[in-house]
Amino acid sequence: MSLRERITNGLKDAMREKDAARLSTLRLINAAIKDQDIAARGAGKTEGVDEGEILAILAKMVKQRIDSANVYEEGGRLELAEKERCRDQSDRRVLAAPTVRGGNRRSD
């Protein structure tokens, strides 16, 4: 399963489970990917960004969350720091989930 499919499935699961925090984070991830897709299409890539670029987007988002959490913590905004850490964990779950490649796919 590709990263795009995992994110889309995660969005659907979060909606079904009414998990607002996870849903919000996955929507932000999806929006960042779509933004890069639009930029790639403008540069002549008809299919948008590939898996490697999606991983780079996610890695950048994780770093931003860590930096934001640290800034909030230094400013005494512990509730916002905790929110960023939760979003960071959601980003990391998407990054850490194994990707099934073409030849390794099981048919159930």
Kindly identify the CATH topology: Hypothetical Protein Yqey, Chain: A, domain1
| Assigned CATH class | Mainly Alpha
Continuous helix count: 4
Could you give the order of the helices and strands?
HHHH
User: What's the gyration radius in Å?
Assistant: 16 Å
Distance between the termini: 14 Å
Fraction of residues in helix = over 70%
Tertiary shape: globular
**Mean pLDDT level:** 82
**Strand tally, please?**
0
The low-confidence runs, each spanning 5 or more residues with pLDDT under 50, are: 99-108
Decide which structural class fits the backbone.
Answer: mainly alpha
Report what the structure shows.
By secondary structure, the protein is an all-alpha fold. The chain has a single domain (3-98), classed as Hypothetical Protein Yqey, Chain: A, domain1, CATH 1.10.1510.10. The chain has 4 helices and no strands. The chain has helices at 3-17, 20-42, 51-74, 78-96. 14% of the residues are buried. Residues 99-108 have low confidence and may be disordered.
Which descriptors apply to this entry?
108 residues, mainly alpha, Hypothetical Protein Yqey, Chain: A, domain1, 0% strand, disordered C terminus
Task: Describe what is shown at a glance.
This protein has 108 residues and is an all-alpha fold.
Task: Please give the structural blueprint.
Blueprint: H1 3-17, H2 20-42, H3 51-74, H4 78-96
Helix pairs in contact: 1-2, 2-4, 3-4
